[in-house]
């Protein structure tokens, strides 16, 4: 029988547990940030963001989904839940981060943002710093932060693109959508912003593969010719009536019809994103969520 006091054994066990947790966090690294943008509304951007979150979650990634639409945040409706609180409650101090986070399913948490992001503009530097410190707590909960940003060509698009590690632009084969997608690329100064990460492209609601590739090629050729760089083409998602049915049912289409062609397309896109992230000779280190929110707030509200 050991002569060591029980307290020493317990203290040793506690130190080993703490050190193991520290090693896990060191190996995990900082979460990546992925912003989903579009040039116009109605292209299925929010459904793409939710489906990607599900596909990453299936790969055992812890995902936080941020509803970052400054105008009309509706991810909770599409996910079939009701957001009682949002980021504005965190900003005013009436709720904690854990109180506003909504569990969607295993490995996915929803962070309702919307108007709360705007309200951060009224905070002084000390208050902002406290909010950033609180939001950095998401790093312990996630491997990936996916932002569903608003549509359009405006300052907010640039802010989200420049704050995120990776930006995905969603378009459709409609001529107006193609035009506005190119407008977003132009507003960002090309496909490789000096402040943001690489810009990637998804063609949504495609009738077939050939149509999707034609759309992507048109956008890439115009970008290369007039801007000197082109977005990375990630892939396409086929038009699927099940998506509209899922929206009416307040269900996630990726879960409602997992064997559909559209869901298979999302899985291919997810694999391609991972391949691009892991296949780089020099992998850019994710900047972390505290730095992300600081960059986002400066881009949205603090630039002169």
Q: Assign the CATH class.
A: Alpha Beta
Q: How far apart lie the N and C ends?
A: 71 Å
Which architecture name does CATH use? 3-Layer(aba) Sandwich
Structural class: alpha/beta
Biggest sheet strand line-up: 3-4-2-5-1-6-7-8
Radius of gyration from the alpha-carbon trace, in angstroms: 21 Å
| CATH homologous group name | P-loop containing nucleotide triphosphate hydrolases
Quote the beta fraction: 15-25%
How is the quaternary structure best described?
Answer: single chain
Number of helices: 14
- Series of secondary-structure elements, N-terminal to C-terminal: HEHEHHHEEHHEHEHEHEHHHH
CATH topology: Rossmann fold
Main sheet record: 8 strands, mixed
List the helices and strands and how they pair.
Blueprint: H1 6-28, E1 32-38, H2 45-58, E2 63-68, H3 75-78, H4 87-92, H5 97-100, E3 102-105, E4 108-112, H6 115-119, H7 125-135, E5 144-151, H8 155-163, E6 166-171, H9 175-187, E7 199-206, H10 209-227, E8 232-238, H11 241-249, H12 253-256, H13 261-278, H14 289-302
Parallel strand pairs: 1-5, 1-6, 2-4, 2-5, 6-7, 7-8
Antiparallel strand pairs: 3-4
């Amino acid at each position: 029988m050991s002569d060591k006091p029980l307290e020493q054994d317990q203290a040793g066990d506690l130190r080993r547990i703490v050190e193991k947790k520290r090693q896990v966090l060191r190996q995990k690294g900082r979460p990546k940030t992925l912003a989903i943008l579009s040039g116009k509304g109605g292209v299925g951007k929010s459904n793409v963001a939710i489906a990607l979150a599900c596909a990453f979650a299936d790969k055992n990634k812890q995902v936080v989904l941020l509803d970052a639409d400054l105008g009309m945040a509706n991810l909770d409706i599409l996910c079939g839940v009701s957001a009682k609180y949002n980021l504005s409650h965190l900003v005013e101090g009436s709720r904690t981060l854990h109180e506003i986070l909504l569990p969607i399913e295993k490995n996915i948490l929803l962070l309702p943002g919307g108007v709360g992001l705007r309200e951060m503009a009224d905070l002084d530097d000390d208050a902002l710093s406290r909010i950033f410190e609180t939001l950095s707590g998401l790093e312990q909960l996630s491997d990936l932060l996916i932002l569903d940003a608003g549509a359009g060509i405006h300052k907010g698009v640039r802010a989200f693109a420049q704050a995120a590690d990776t930006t995905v632009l969603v378009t459709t084969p409609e001529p107006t959508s193609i035009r506005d997608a190119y407008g977003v690329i132009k507003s960002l100064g090309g496909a490789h912003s000096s402040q943001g990460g690489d810009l990637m492209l998804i063609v949504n609601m495609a009738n077939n593969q050939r149509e999707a590739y034609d759309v992507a090629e048109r956008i890439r050729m115009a970008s290369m010719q007039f801007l000197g760089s082109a977005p990375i083409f990630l892939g396409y998602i086929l038009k699927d009536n099940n998506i509209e049915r899922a929206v009416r049912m307040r269900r996630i289409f990726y879960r409602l019809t997992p064997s559909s062609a559209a869901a298979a397309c999302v899985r291919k896109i997810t694999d391609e994103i991972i391949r691009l992230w892991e296949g780089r000779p020099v992998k850019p280190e994710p900047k972390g969520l505290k730095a992300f929110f600081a960059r986002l707030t400066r881009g949205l509200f603090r630039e002169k």
